[in-house]
């Protein structure tokens, strides 16, 4: 029978006190997966044999009181755009349907050292391009709260497995909201760290200047524990920074409500979650003010030039020459053209073409060059804002989860679901999504908190205090039904 | 500006062959996006300096030391076609 | 109509670093394919580039060596094009902020110095190697084999302004650039190994025209000889077209070594649009004054400095340039030897002609350890002062290369010292005059060729032991008073 999974600290306590063994927990999440997967399709591959073997090694360590720490024996799911040695990394693309990684991503090496067990690889929008996981070449993932609705994306699989209990936590990647938006849709915590604090080495790049790996968890404390393990300078990633984390000294926190994300374009339901939190914050004596960053309205346009431009080059390497699928042809060029035609799905092609155009001779200054400059302005606007406030509060998403096919007709409608999350990527800021309530149709809603660069730990602390204030104690129907049966 | 968008030129540059149906659909979608991003035209960006890294990190250089590379078998294990330790592709010279 | 050719050179220099440009794979020289490759230089999904500090030091050194201004705030760009041996289908290169700009290199053409202006010096990475399989002719290739050991090796591209006017000048420029990178110690500089690879941009126009003609790029020249021939051929080809009033097509052409012609390369449709943009994997690169000063410390004795020293020793510009471009040991040997000899030209001739010739014949590429500049200077002085004949000097050198001898003692021990004793020579002269009365009678003046014959006879009778100059003096005195 499926049980609601305790927090990582609690699990660790159970392990230490020999009340539960890592292999038992692994079998439990695997059992959950074995019935949730048929509905959700959140995992693309499960690592049962190796997972069981490694969790037994972990059993051993705990029995000898030699565990590696809090994450030893914790089953974590990995988004399938992060390389794990010896396993397939498909990016949910036909292009990489047969690709096996010959190396580990840096985050994977870190988690392995911490004794983490991997449950398997999770579904995503192809090459992380999308907001619903509908763009997976292997079929969509369903929302554990209601399988008629999308789990969000692109880390839809990673959010769904945590929500459904088929993993204790997961790693996702966030380029324009791909961790926070699905976390919000699935009622779990999603965190995009400060750009450069977590190594991107081994993460299959979508848009290099925006991508960031981060955890999706049940609790904010779980996020803290995983972030703590995967963060830090990596000499293999030139954009990696040596973070000097800021601390929050004063008890009275200054919170800014971003006006541009509390107006038309964001549903009343989503706005209400923010208002609810504001009331609670004020009750605690925190200082809440409205702030305005007018260029936020340009964020989507900036994003939809920069991300496609970078992705157009990042995805050039998928050509059928050294790995991946290959189409037969009589010349190399024809082979590459055909392979890329067959291997990529529609959304990926769309973004590659858009980016190619934005970079091409004669249009560079108008499009990509201009977008970079507006991005610089957005970055300095945030800097100015953070002189006045400690954190910025907004909804995570303009609406709760939407239904399958609801936003596939017009590309802009889908893109607008990342309206609230994109600014943090453009400015490299840490941002976290915390579930706060349910919508009218019983789907989760969340708030997003953004902090200044390298305020990750104090942002997590603050998010934890909000988590305590809102007491979000709901769980998805899928689990309830199983538990009641 | 988006009226200059020629899907054949762009798919050629991007090395992606497209069917006529795909062209029609993509052309339509891209037109919508390009019209949307036109809004950026109205923003004054004259004196803006560009930093590649959003936190303005400066490039650090690596010491010139060689480390172990991939094992040959691992390097080749995903190759669609192999001959005498090489990757093989259809002729790249016509 | 008088036509003039304008040539600009683009040269790729492979740097001699331990590891590659953006990954830690060892730079190897091997025929075994794909043995020094990693996720980064194979373009595997998820891999990232981290630049090599030594490569940046080297490009700064080269930029300084080519008298360029250093760009303090630069960046890397992606140059996008699809080619199977380019693993990411973009090359990391530099676009609008190259490391070095606006420099110049001094080159030598015969006895004249020229300056070739350098437009830019930028950093990039090499591609893999393609081997085209088929029936032997490239147009019937059946498949292409790829080896990525070379992929990611640091390359510096040096681009000149269009200021070169002849093939000879282009060759002299490459020779100078090659020497600069060798003297800086930043590249092995071996053309046959592809350490230096060059393309030439050539145009032809009326010498009075204000604008350059249409530019044609020539690729695939693997040696200085093919560079010279390809440029000459291309100038001729374009000149004919311009003279006929036809327009030259802007294109890339290949030098066909077998046919000795340039041929048009079939290119993919549409002109190249590389979509350069700043690489988001590589933050802005700051080259500060400290870094420049540190790189500067490693720069000593560039070709121009060496030429200056050589000229000061008394050599002509072309002889100086010859030694400057030769092997370092020969340059050092010349400088230490000439300190102890009287004549720089004959020292130069003896070392570059006789010594190198004999070493080549004996198939030795290093001097035996007992052969030093003092012994060589002594030997040169022996024939310079006519103490031994040049023929004897050559024999002594042969001996010296195989055995540790002292040239002077060897000469005297083996009776090679020429006598300058007037009385002894006078006796020999008198005897020869007596024996050759018929010839003496035919002599008309001191310039007569027969004088030489008589000198020869005296030398022969002395078994070459006397000084031919003295013989001639005494002979003429006897004959003409
Ligand atoms: Mg180049
Ligand atoms: Zn490598």
Features:
heterotrimer; A: alpha/beta; Amidase signature (AS) enzymes; 11-stranded mixed β-sheet; 40% helix; C: 481 residues; alpha+beta; 3-stranded antiparallel β-sheet; 39% helix; binds magnesium ion
Would you write up a description of this structure?
The complex is a heterotrimer of chains A (485), B (94) and C (481). Chain A has 485 residues and is α/β, with parallel strands linked by helices. Chain A has a domain at 8-250 and 395-484: Amidase signature (AS) enzymes. Chain A is 40% helix and 13% strand. Chain A contains 16 helices and 11 strands. In chain A, helix 2 (22-40) crosses helix 5 (156-164), helix 5 (156-164) runs parallel beside helix 6 and helix 7 packs antiparallel against helix 15 (456-470). Chain A is globular and about 65 Å long. The termini of chain A are close together. Chain B is flat, with a radius of gyration of 22 Å. Chain B is mostly helical and 94 residues long. The model of chain B has no long low-confidence stretch (mean pLDDT 92). Chain B has 3 helices and 2 strands; from the N terminus they run H-H-H-E-E. Chain B has a two-stranded antiparallel sheet with strand order 1-2. Chain B has a domain at 1-42: Orthogonal Bundle (Histone, subunit A), CATH 1.10.20. Chain C has 481 residues and is of the alpha+beta class. In chain C, 39% of the residues lie in helices and 21% in strands. Chain C has 15 helices and 16 strands. Chain C has helices at residues 53-65, 167-184, 224-243, 289-297, 303-312, 317-325, 328-338, 344-361, 373-384, 390-402, 407-413, 422-435, 437-442, 449-461, 468-480; strands at residues 3-14, 69-70, 73-74, 77-80, 90-93, 100-109, 112-125, 129-134, 141-147, 154-160, 196-206, 216-221, 251-256, 261-264, 277-278, 285-286. In chain C, 43% of the residues are buried. Strand 2 (86-89) of chain B pairs antiparallel with strand 9 (141-147) of chain C. Zinc ion is lined by residues 20, 23, 25, 37-38, 40-41, 152 of chain C. The site of magnesium ion has 2 residues of chain C, from loops.
Rg for CA atoms of chain B: 22 Å
Helix content of chain B: 25-40%
Q: Strands of the biggest beta sheet of chain C: in what spatial order?
A: 2-6-7-10-1-11-12-13-14
CATH classification, class level of the domain at 1-42 in chain B = Mainly Alpha
The helix-and-strand class of chain C reads alpha+beta
Question: Rough shape of chain B?
Answer: flat
The quaternary state of the protein chains shown equals heterotrimer
First and last CA, distance of chain C: 64 Å
Residue stretches of chain C low in confidence (pLDDT < 50, at least 5 long) are none
Integer count of domains of chain C: 3
Sequence of secondary-structure elements of chain B: HHHEE
Q: Number of DSSP helices of chain C? A: 15
Per the CATH scheme, the topology name of the domain at 1-42 in chain B is: Histone, subunit A
Strand order of the largest sheet of chain B: 1-2
Q: What ions, cofactors and ligands are bound? A: magnesium ion, zinc ion
Number of strands of chain B: 2
